[in-house]
Design brief:
alpha+beta; six-stranded antiparallel sheet; 4 helices; 6 strands
Length: about 120
């Protein structure tokens, strides 16, 4: 599992999937020491009808905690983790995979070394 800076996460989520023929960004993650959020997913896709970005969560396997947002700000600030937002719990978020690849292997695809960003 891997920790990322919120800046790097923003860089990943700002990637234009529609321009690169990528169907979506899918991140498997966990919230440290949480039995409920031990294998959750989040990501970004393009709505085929509108062409707009859709940011989403699938927090539990049964689908009962699935959410969609139409802006990154709403996505990052939604209080869906038992009353807390992703931004608020960020230091407890660990990445398991990105697009079903090892996090370290997939990061270069999304992060440009010239941005000054970098994973921690």
């Amino acid at each position: 599992m891997k920790k990322l800076t919120f800046f790097d996460f923003e860089q990943i989520m700002s990637f234009d999937v529609s321009m690169k023929n990528e169907p979506c960004i899918e991140i498997e993650f966990c919230v440290d020491n949480s039995a409920e959020y031990h294998s959750s997913c989040m990501g970004k896709m393009t709505d085929n009808q509108t062409g707009n970005d859709v940011f989403w969560y699938g927090l539990v396997v049964d689908g009962s905690q699935a959410y969609e947002f139409y802006s990154f700000e709403d996505f990052a600030n939604a209080k869906i983790f038992r009353g807390s937002s992703l931004k608020e719990i960020w230091n407890s978020v660990s990445f398991i995979s990105i697009d079903a690849f090892d996090v370290e292997d997939r990061l270069p695809f999304y992060l440009n070394d010239d941005t000054g960003g970098g994973s921690q």
